[in-house]
Amino acid sequence: MLQFIFRRLLLVVPTFIGITLLTFFLIRLIPGDPIELLAGERGVDPARHAMLMAQMGLDQPILVQYMHYIADVLRGNLGTSISTREPVLHEFLTLFPATVELSLCATLFAIIIGLPAGILAAVKRGSVFDHSVMTISLTGYSMPIFWWALLLMLVFSVNLGWTPVSGRIDVTYWVDDVTGFMLIDSLLSDDKGAFISTLSHLILPSIVLGTIPLAVIARMTRSSMLEVLGEDYIRTARAKGLAPKRVIFIHALRNALIPVITVIGLQVGTLLAGAILTETIFAWPGVGKWLIEAIHRRDYPVVQGGILIVATLIILVNLLVDILYGVVNPRIRHNK
Amino acid sequence: MALLSIKNLTVTFGEGDNPFRAVDRISYTVDEGEVLGIVGESGSGKSVSSLSVMGLIDYPGKVKADELTFDGSDLLSLSANARRKITGDDIAMIFQDPMTSLNPCFTVGYQIVEALKVHGGGSKKELKARAIELLKQVGIPAPESRFDNYPHQLSGGMSQRMMIAMAIACNPRLLIADEPTTALDVTIQAQIIDLLVNLQKARGMGLILITHDLALVAEVAHRIVVMYAGQIVEMAPADQLFVTPRHPYTQALLRSLPEHSAGHARLQALPGVVPGKHDRPQGCLLNPRCPYATDRCRKEEPGLQPYPGNSARMVKCFYPLNDEGSPAV
Ligand SMILES: Nc1ncnc2c1ncn2[C@@H]1O[C@H](COP(=O)(O)OP(=O)(O)O)[C@@H](O)[C@H]1O
Ligand SMILES: [Mg+2]
């Protein structure tokens, strides 16, 4: 197992190099530079512009800049934001809990609905329920996030007034930052209203962000269950005289979950990508919104560093999924 | 009274006026302590017919029968719940491929204990002790440590022994073994058959031994049912069937055995395959492959009749073979 993890970690090196190359050069392909955008409409006098560029080392040949950047990264230095002068890592760490909180809630939403829907659809294959699940999940999967978000916002926030439009918590509450997770912090604050406000702020973004993972999980669960239900050992389980519930939830589900867990893990990438849009639409103060704003400001260090951290996390989660996969699947666990 | 009694059991798949008959009006009985062999090529309905005895045919498959009784009680009229009380308890079944028949996610110990638990129960310790005792009975070395093995840690032969242990866990009165050795090494096959027959004798169970290999059941079965395309074409005491097959299909099966074909230029198997859903011929289902088929065989379907002068034998042929192996005219 240790060897397996080590081998996987080794494979990460080329991935990292690829990510740094991509972010570094892609962001520089967008016209405009940080100084221009910082100055805004007023414009900046060319001499001052050149001086500031030189100060930031942005006047050097691009390959030299890249080398400097890599050297810094290797020393664990992700640089400082051009617009806020804060270290990138520090900014990331402050904003990250908000993104994690939203992503976890979205995943929870996706699992709680997607898993049972997939199981039931497989067990009742060909039924109206099955067809509905398949159709709805296909729709959910192909729904543009921003459109879906605006639709929900329009109905539930604007027309019905059930949920707040944006943010993490109502401005009338002040909650001490203990864990960075607003749900926990507001619960700790002993103010029921704060907790409820946090919860209601989470609902729509979670649904929006969780929709694609939900569709993927439901479909994957269904197809995985269908496959497993046709296996010989399911016939054996039934031949023992086990009740259908036990056959489905113990014998079939345990096997069907193996690919589903992988898929859930792979959704982390989708979630973080989705978080960028969702956070922007719902003004959710997380990493996604931060990155989008950094791109608009051509804040090179933030874009490069932020994406590098996010990519690292995705890789780590995938590694974790592989390990978890071994835990549920004895065939892998024993193949040392 | 027979332990299992089947009359005109039919299993169909598909809708409409003409659904596919995977099993077509078969009738047989199995007595307590009897070994019934069921032979026939692949696709002849052996598995489907035994699964319907277990109550494991799912929608859209339909099971119909004039009689399907176990120990006098009508299985078809039971509720699903009541039926499950018999399945795995009084009637147990093992399958063709032991490597895929055990759940890869659970230890074999867990799976055997589970079988004990559904139809009885007991404390955790008792159940484990009984499971280990079962492992001993089916000849598994070091049963205590094997108890905690996962299926992928076992060989094919060992897996089939586990399946047998699981099947006999609740002391079934009827055991159905569906091609129990087909997926195994030749060297292991005889061991598994020996084990099954020894258990059957020791426990006085009824045993239905299904195989496509006539040689396998020759020595162990009391009676043999020969199936073709979902129908029974011949039924006879084993010793008689091997000496004087009455049905052309049985004759062909016997001639295709290695020891019979030794002197022949080539294997004397029938050309062609068992008709499936779309190519069922009119008349006798064997007629396109039968060397003796006449116009009558191509138009009418013969019934399963007692062989003239021997009521212990049944044959479904207009021209049953005589002692010399030629068709009666
Ligand atoms: N679930 C099913 N749906 C449709 N046809 C089936 C099904 N199961 C079996 N059959 C058909 O029934 C026939 C008999 O199958 P089976 O009993 O498995 O044959 P055997 O065990 O003798 O090889 C075959 O033609 C097979 O294709
Ligand atoms: Mg079969």
Automatic annotation (TrEMBL), chain A:
Signal peptide: none annotated. The chain crosses the membrane at residues 9-30, 100-123, 144-162, 194-217, 256-282, 302-328. Residues 96-325 form the ABC transmembrane type-1 domain. It comes from the Bacteria. Pfam families: BPD_transp_1, BPD_transp_1_N. It is found in: Cell membrane. PROSITE patterns: ABC_TM1. Keywords: Cell membrane, Membrane, Transmembrane, Transmembrane helix, Transport. It is a multi-pass membrane protein. Belongs to the binding-protein-dependent transport system permease family. OppBC subfamily. This is Peptide ABC transporter permease. It comes from Pokkaliibacter plantistimulans.
Automatic annotation (TrEMBL), chain B:
It catalyses: a dipeptide(out) + ATP + H2O = a dipeptide(in) + ADP + phosphate + H(+). Keywords: ATP-binding, Cell membrane, Membrane, Nucleotide-binding, Transport. The keyword Secreted does not apply. Its EC number is 7.4.2.9. It is found in: Cell inner membrane. It is an enzyme of class 7 (translocase). Gene3D superfamilies: P-loop containing nucleotide triphosphate hydrolases. It is a peripheral membrane protein. PROSITE patterns: ABC_TRANSPORTER_1 (PS00211), ABC_TRANSPORTER_2 (PS50893). Residues 4-254 form the ABC transporter domain. InterPro entries: AAA+_ATPase, ABC_Ni/Peptide_Import, ABC_transporter-like_ATP-bd, ABC_transporter-like_CS, Oligopep_ABC_C, P-loop_NTPase. It comes from the Bacteria. CDD domains: ABC_NikE_OppD_transporters. The keyword DNA damage does not apply. Pfam families: ABC_tran (PF00005), oligo_HPY (PF08352). GO terms for molecular function: ATP binding. Belongs to the ABC transporter superfamily. This is ABC-type dipeptide transporter. It comes from Pokkaliibacter plantistimulans.
